[in-house]
Amino acid sequence: MTLGRPKWPAGHRCAAMITVNLNAELFWLQLDPSCGKMPKTLSLGQYGMTRGVERIMDVLDQRKIKATFFTPGWVAENYSEKLLEVKRRGHEIAALGYRHENMALLTDEEQEAVMKKSIEAIKKICGDPPRGFRSPEGELTLETLRIAKKYGIEYSSNLCDDDRPYFKDLGQGETLLEIPIHWANYDLPYFAFNYHPAFPAGQGRIAGYEGVLSNWKDEFYGCREYGLCYVLQLDPAVIGAPGRISLLEDLLDYMKEQGDVWFARGSEMTNFYGN
């Protein structure tokens, strides 16, 4: 397929991929390992698994939308019942490292060990290996993608160099489907906050809710206008709060009202581009 205006299934005008990053407490542990002794900080991530995931799935169920849940292997092992519920509801489980590692800081050998361990953990819990991969911390090397493909990954959702899926050149005649992302369509940069360890480092966040919803709608409007692929990233600990879940409801309702959006999981996008 070319990089021109995509032609989506059944005459849809644009595509949308709703994704959830099941970071749990690993986001904070990766930021500062000493958080392992800070129950308050750990609880920020745990909240997403105890409350946020269920709220997100209920919103999706009500609108008959299936999402892609990027999951660290450690989370699959430690929240196995929650992950099985995600799968039972028809959502896709994709890989997100093992313990939320910054892949760009690892050697090739370390990356391979992480990739293998994360895929095996998901397969053990869910019965099927993940088809997609997103790198924790949003950082990776080209070798990361080569390793992902070596272990059976069929698509990546990591890069920001386009707004439609394309085949990333991995060298030596190898390619991997890339489904690009953009920071504006991710809840974490707007809302994540903690005093210690300080995040963001300079503080000065939590964004106004109406402003964030307006941003998301504007970004979607642009994608629909040009017939592109809108990828939303959600963290259950963020969007799953009772005062914020309505942002997701309002956004999805706005998208559904258009009547011409193809909501696809990563594997469905891969099947389509593979045909």
Automatic annotation (TrEMBL):
InterPro entries: Glyco_hydro/deAcase_b/a-brl (IPR011330), NODB_dom (IPR002509), PgdA-like (IPR037950)
GO BP annotations listed: carbohydrate metabolic process
GO molecular function, one term: hydrolase activity, acting on carbon-nitrogen (but not peptide) bonds
Domain of life per record: Bacteria
Domain NodB homology: 39-275
Identification of the protein by name: Polysaccharide deacetylase
Organism: Emergencia timonensis
